[in-house]
Design brief:
Length: 200
């Protein structure tokens, strides 16, 4: 009885594709964290400076659209974006281009405009992603709305007072030095002056 065949190690082309896909995914995740933690610079780092973004029927440049998005999320007490299925398709004709389709679900909470401000929505990001100077970022984004519902306040369960809670600033646990008690904890602020800045 013959032994099962073993796959060969990935060659340079396959490895480059895997690294490209991972870099694109990390850019997408930086945006989600940046929105939920109200970290505009982190959210902006997912896009090239001249990126174009379509959201809610409006198309604008990166900074204009981030102005709109952060004004909206500032009215919420919490947002949480889940990015689930992420399919990155590299352009066979151009190693510096890719298309990414990302499924997502967003939870938004508000105490100032209940219950309409308590929204759960399903969406997709359809992105053109390009690599410049070795870095993958979104060049063009179209946000596709799939469904939306209001989460009635009566159906929400209160978080126990003793529970560790998320925050929308540097007091959130993700901003703590990592690993706990490791060299970063003793080094103090990073060169940018932001203590415990996560890699994103």
């Amino acid at each position: 009885m013959s032994e099962p065949s073993r796959p060969f190690p990935a060659g340079p082309v396959e490895l480059d594709a895997l690294l490209a896909e991972r870099a694109v995914e990390r850019a997408l995740l930086r945006y989600a964290r940046g929105i939920d933690r109200m970290d505009r610079a982190l959210a902006a780092s997912a896009f090239h400076p001249d990126a174009r973004i379509t959201l809610g029927g409006t198309t604008a440049d990166r900074d204009t659209m981030l102005d709109t998005v952060f004004a909206l999320v500032a009215r919420r007490t919490m947002t949480m974006h889940y990015l689930t299925n992420i399919l990155v398709e590299l352009d066979p004709a151009d190693p510096n281009r890719a298309r990414a389709e990302t499924y997502g679900i967003a939870f938004q909470r508000s105490t100032s405009e209940p219950p309409r401000g308590n929204i759960i929505s399903g969406f997709r990001y359809v992105d053109l992603v390009t690599r410049r100077a070795g870095e993958w970022r979104v060049q063009e984004r179209r946000t596709v709305s799939e469904w939306q519902r209001v989460d009635d306040l009566a159906g929400q369960w209160p978080i126990p007072e003793a529970a560790l809670r998320g925050a929308r600033d540097a007091s959130d646990p993700i901003s703590s030095p990592w690993p706990p008690g490791g060299p970063a904890a003793e080094a103090g602020p990073d060169p940018a002056g932001e203590p415990g800045r996560p890699c994103g």
